[in-house]
Amino acid sequence: MKKKKSVFYRIYFFVVIIFLVVLAVGLVVLYGWLKSYESSQPTTIVNKIITDYLEKGDYEGLQKDLELKVSEFDSSDNLKQILKDAVEGKKYSIAHSSFKPEGADLAYIIKADDEKVLNVYLKKHKIGKGYDIAYVELSKSLLKTVEIIAPKGAEITVNGVAVPDDLKKDNEFPSLPSTIDVKTLTPTQTAKISGLLSDTPEVKATINGKEAEVTANGTTFTVAQPIDKAVGDKVTDIAQKCAVAYAAYMQKDGSFGAFSQHCDTSTPFYKNVASSLVMFVKPHNGYKNENLTVTALTKYSDSLYSCRVTFKHTLLSGDTTYSDDFDKIVFVSKNKDVYKVIDMQAPVSNSDTD
What is the structure's pLDDT at 44? Predict the structure, then answer.
């Protein structure tokens, strides 16, 4: 009888031990699966970017491990500084984004306080229900765009990197008077450089192998051909006088004659203003112009020039003021020694945000 009990207990304990081993292995496998499942969940993935990189200030690791791309015209050193300035000492949060580019199934935004910092795009596992990182990019709110206007054929560099020809787009000429042959003109091109970490990059240019002057007006850089100073002074003088007279006329503060004396009366621009019944008038008893600047002097030929005229036009009405920022590219023709305005065009905006 004792022998039978001994065999029974051996079998019993053997079964119990096997059960406990299987249970332990099962719990380990289950724990691993749950941990893997949790780590592949969207918010866990995004929060891990915050804890592993941003909170530790490991911006170099962030760029390397997540393949955070930098514009070919910028450097990794600039990226580190931009991220540091954007997040240091701020509270992080994440938000779901409805924008999903091709190749992504989910999108999230990492914010530092209220400022967008990173866009995180996730893709589903091919097997299972988890997610992986598709790619990460800087928020467009941290990126800058500049425009460079230059004569066709000019060689341009941004931060020492040559601007390829496929980024340069031809600019159209305004309607020209019969005295100007378009075939004699050197057209200009605009290169739009996006994704920069600074809106004050180093822009240099050469024309026919010679270094050209580059002037900046906000985020627009203009490469100028050499212009005789006397001619340039006359172009900028008539351009600013016409611009000021135009702004005054449109508010009924100046006569049409004060404006028209600076214009070529054969052009569509002049005829449109002369026939326009639209006046942008607000009640006022005075006005003033402030911060008048003339930049981006450009030569297309000996008979056609342009420059950018900007100023703040303020209407006065008792203690109330209304200000408007005048900003136009003014085209000036030259026929012998007679200079006339043939057109005014608004600069193209280059804003680019999320």
Answer: 86
DSSP 190-211: EEEEEEES-SS--EEEEETTEE
The tokens of 32 are what?
């691993």
Query: From CA 189, how far away is CA 167, in angstroms rounded?
Result: 9
C-alpha to C-alpha distance for 156 and 87, rounded to whole angstroms? 34
Query: Are 246 and 344 within 8 A, CB to CB?
Result: yes
Asked whether the predicted pLDDT for residue 58 surpasses 50, the reply is yes
What digits encode the pLDDT tens for the residues 211-235?
999 988 889 999 988 889 999 999 9
Which residue is it, tokens 């765009």?
Answer: 145
Are the C-beta atoms of residues 227 and 299 closer than 8 Å to each other?
yes
Please tell me the distance from the alpha carbon of residue 78 to that of residue 65, in angstroms, as a whole number: 18
What φ, ψ does residue 240 adopt, rounded to 5°?
-70, -35
What gap in Å lies between CA 80 and CA 68, rounded to an integer? Answer: 11
Over the Cα atoms of the chain, what is R_g?
A: 33
Beta bridge partners of 169: 190
Cα angle 183, 187, 189; round to 5: 155
350: buried, middle or exposed (CB in 10 Å: 19+, 13-18, 0-12)? middle
Which residues 6+ apart lie within 8 Å of 188 measured at CB? 149, 150, 151, 152, 170, 171, 298, 300
**Rounded to whole angstroms, what are the CA distances from 65 to 53, 69, 122, 263?**
10, 11, 15, 60
